[in-house]
Design a protein that fits this description.
By secondary structure, this protein is mainly α. It contains six helices and four strands, in the order ααββααααββ. The protein has a two-stranded antiparallel ribbon with strand order 1-2. The chain has a two-stranded antiparallel ribbon with strand order 3-4.
């Protein structure tokens, strides 16, 4: 593959992209593929042209070990840890909303207070569950989509 000769299909456009840093020198990808494949695996890459262009890059045995499926026990432990962290974050957000809504507040005020931008996701993940659990109520329950709608924390009577 030492006689590889790259050619640009549209030289003026490729020059512009190289000048602004959005493209490398023509052929550098092939040179780098050969250079780094030899460096890391000791082999040579294969480039197979056909209906579908294929590249075969030989890997050293150690590289194969690094891409084996991960330990399932580790995955489960990591998932549980992430779930607990997410639950704590969600609980803190619920608590913050309930504390903030001691006085009636609009959805926009609550969003800003909690630092969220997406009203739809915020409503789905926080307001709806609090409303369903009876911890938060609407000031205009007959008009849930009113622009004057506000939310207030329900005081515990226990």
């Amino acid at each position: 593959m030492s006689s590889f000769e790259p050619f640009a299909k549209n030289p003026p456009i490729s020059k512009v992209f190289r000048e602004i840093g959005l493209a490398d020198e023509l052929g550098s990808g092939m040179r780098n593929t050969f250079k780094y494949t030899k460096l890391y695996s000791g082999g040579a890459p294969e480039f197979i042209e056909g209906d579908i262009f294929r590249t075969v890059i030989p890997l050293a045995p150690i590289a194969g070990e690094k891409v084996d499926p991960p330990d399932k026990h580790q995955d489960r432990t990591q998932d549980r840890t992430q779930d607990r962290t997410q639950d704590r974050t969600q609980d803190r957000t619920y608590d913050a909303i309930l504390a903030f809504c001691i006085e009636p507040r609009s959805k926009v005020e609550i969003l800003e207070y909690c630092g969220y931008k997406s009203s739809k996701k915020f409503t789905q993940n926080y307001l709806r569950p609090l409303l369903n659990e009876g911890k938060l109520k609407m000031t205009l329950p007959d008009k849930p989509r009113s622009r004057h709608q506000k939310y207030i924390t329900v005081k515990n009577t226990e």
